[in-house]
Amino acid sequence: MNPLRQAWLLDPAVHFLNHGSFGACPRPVLEHQQRLRDQLERQPVAFMQRELPIHLEEVRAVLGGFVGADPADLVFVTNATSGVNAVLRSLSFEPGDEILITDHAYPACRRTVEYVASRSGARIRVVEIPLQPAGSHIVDRILDAAGPATRLALIDHVASPTSLVFPIDEIVASLAARNIDTLVDGAHAPGMLPLQLEDLGAAYYTGNCHKWMCAPKGAAFLYVRPDRQGSIVPTVISHGYRPDDPSGAAFHEMFDWAGTADPTAVLSIGVAIDTVASLDPGGWPAVMHANRELAAAGAEIVATAVDSPAQTPLGMRAAMVSFELPAGYPPGAGWDPLQDRLLFEHRVEVPIVPWPRPPHRLLRISAHMYNELDEFRALAEALRAVL
């Protein structure tokens, strides 16, 4: 077994190839979080009212360095879906306005777009992009769909169902040239890809820290470009809401204090960054490279079993790869029974997702430092048995 597996609590009896869904948190990070919880419970008032603001600023500075953003432009949210909600539900749309998304959008975020559009009368324009596009093909399709009525584009950085890494720099720049803001759903990107959010220039970017960065669940961020911060509020309005104060302090306070909650996941982000970096002498660049190479090697093994006509193209993937499977996703089902068979009959945890719509489906593999090639071999054998 991979010796790095001992750094995680993962069940050793399960081949866990689904880091992409909820991540997995290393033991040292969980131990740090528990120490913070103990500290909180010893003196809740001191921790929440006196110490927490200082701790949040410290973590914000560390996170800013990791994602290439001024800490003043970052706020904490519980997950990327919350970040998408905060932006979409803060903006004002009118009948005739268009919100542009692709058919690779994460279902929860698409539901948010549908909710906002239904209440405002805005239209949703969905750009269809195949599983194996060229980068320029993606940009051209998005630009062809964007028109004078397009108010906002919600674009994935790394698409959850298809694992496709979008050419986000070119997309953001091309839309900006047409005065169209982009909200980037970067749920998977932090820790999977190097980020420089200030250079990217997107109006809005949200990302999870609990996935590839391996922070505890409930740790995520929302980046808002300074010229857009005055219009963005959290989905929960609380003590920090000061509509007449456009300062950065008010922007932080609105998101930092939305009522009593456990802040220890966010406060563990810095330890997560350090812990994962310590797994390879080359630090985070080496970790990202190793995960990408492991996913590529695992994909070669799995491809022999699924005989897939299409998979995430080599030049547009990172630490996840998706494969087309024979159609068969049960109509109306929230869960493909094939996923249960792989787990309960073969001890392999891997997601089967409907895309672009049932009965068509994809299998998605993930690779992180605790995985090894034998796990992908186990998946390949399981697929041969059940397909």
Show the helix and strand layout.
Blueprint: E1 15-16, H1 19-22, H2 27-42, H3 44-67, E2 74-77, H4 80-90, E3 98-102, H5 107-120, E4 123-127, H6 135-145, E5 150-156, H7 168-176, E6 181-186, H8 197-200, E7 204-208, E8 220-224, H9 248-256, H10 264-267, H11 269-277, H12 283-306, E9 320-325, H13 337-346, E10 348-349, E11 352-354, E12 361-366, H14 373-386
Parallel strand pairs: 1-10, 3-4, 3-5, 5-6, 6-7
Antiparallel strand pairs: 2-8, 7-8, 9-12, 11-12
Helix pairs in contact: 2-3, 4-5, 6-7, 12-14, 13-14
Features:
387 residues; alpha/beta; seven-stranded mixed β-sheet; three-stranded antiparallel β-sheet; 12 strands
Characterise this structure.
The chain has helices spanning 19-22, 27-42, 44-67, 80-90, 107-120, 135-145, 168-176, 197-200, 248-256, 264-267, 269-277, 283-306, 337-346, 373-386; strands at residues 15-16, 74-77, 98-102, 123-127, 150-156, 181-186, 204-208, 220-224, 320-325, 348-349, 352-354, 361-366. It has 387 residues and is of the alpha/beta class. The strands form three sheets. The chain has a seven-stranded mixed sheet, with helices on both faces. A three-stranded antiparallel sheet has the order 9-12-11, with helices on one face. A two-stranded parallel sheet has the order 1-10. The protein is globular, with a radius of gyration of 21 Å. The chain starts with 14 loop residues before the first strand and ends with a helix. The model has no long low-confidence stretch (mean pLDDT 95).
